[in-house]
Amino acid sequence: MTVRSSFRILAGALILCAAVLAGCRPAPPEAIPITQNGQSIPALATVTPIQPTLAPTLPPTSVPLTVNAFRHRTGVFALNLPDRWETLDESTDQRILVRMLPPPGYGSRVTVEITNEGPLAPENVRALAESYIRLHYEEAIGYQEISREDLADGGLQFVFLYEDQQGATGRETLTVHQIGPFFTALRVFLSDRDTASLGLVLNALAGSFQVDALAPWGTRVAAINPAELRIANTLLWQDRSRVMHYTGEVQNASPADVTDTQVTVNVCDDAGIIIAEKTQPIDLTTIPQGTTAAFDFVMDDLPDGSQICSEQASAQPAKPNPAFTNAVTLNGGVSYHPWRRDLTIEGTIANLGLVPVHRVAA
Questions:
Q1: CA dihedral (260, 261, 267, 272) positive or negative
Q2: In 37-155, at which residue ranges do the beta strands (DSSP E only) sit?
Q3: Are 191 and 108 a contacting pair, CB within 8 Å?
Q4: Which end of the chain is more exposed for a tag (fewer CB within 10 A), N or C?
Q5: Residue 188 contacts by C-beta under 8 Å, 6 or more apart in sequence?
Q6: pTM summary value
């Protein structure tokens, strides 16, 4: 075979191989053995690529808690109230007091108390908060303060442990704010045995609490019109010692509770000439709107035939006071003992409010 024939055969073989390879995937390159000092070093095993980690399967979502948007009838506050919770509303025209209770079987509760105090300086808000704590916690059995904090939004927060020595234990958080004219106290009590089931629920409820600073409620009356303080059931009489008494009642027909109430009378002789002017304060601290309070003048220096020729009552608007309440009633009877010449009132005093009362005055 000549050299030229060999070349043709080799060229044809190369062309045929190229045509075959053009329609085939290239074979992986053959590993070249590595030698060191004339000795072959085995090639490293091929590393298997790491498969991408699949996203974890999300746990099934829990059934969302059903809540209802609760807005108080005054429009002052609103919050998200869980379904089947009960509201006990003991509000008056001067104080909002609402207690919210979970379904039977739970020991936790939420209380909202709001009064219209008008604009207050921070030191006055703090003083009012201290008064509130004395009334609701220091004088109540079972509470122990464990912390207090100034909040970033200007509010005050107090935490109390509770134990009634009868097995009930828990923690109460009191949050106080002055929002516009409203002094607000939000009390969240979490019973220890409700922590797992109601802890997050109470946090969400407290977080939804809102106060409308422009709500037209509890607008404080600037002054009391004397014509709205009516004097009724009056009686002028003389006892056996010839001391004259003038008794009656003051009815508060003004649009607000009143305090510092007093009655002034002019005494005239039988000719109609004024001979004396006397003023008698009302002992009752506050006369709620629409109620009455009694007065009694004792006059031992008047001549016979004297008469009351004019009378007038005056008072000031009562400032809401969290340390004072009128939510008490007396269910009793009156008896008169002629031989002792005294009048006895006996009965039971009932507390109709939501908080304990002390130092009851009748």
A1: positive
A2: 39-41, 67-71, 77-82, 86-89, 95-101, 109-116, 143-150
A3: yes
A4: N
A5: 110, 172, 173, 175, 202, 205, 206
A6: 0.54
Strand partners, 82: 67
Q: How far apart are CA 113 and CA 137, in angstroms?
A: 15
For the chain, the residue count is 362
Tell me the pLDDT tens digit for each residue of 15-62.
555 554 545 554 544 544 444 445 544 444 444 444 444 444 444 444
Structure tokens belonging to residue 65: 């808690």
Residue whose C-alpha is closest to residue 288's, from 346, 235, 245, 352: 352
For residue 76 the two structure tokens come to: 């002052």
Long-range Cβ contacts of 102-109 (<8 Å, 24+ apart): 102/194, 102/198, 102/201, 106/191, 106/194, 106/197, 106/198, 107/168, 107/170, 107/191, 107/193, 107/194, 108/170, 108/189, 108/190, 108/191, 108/194, 108/198, 108/202, 109/189
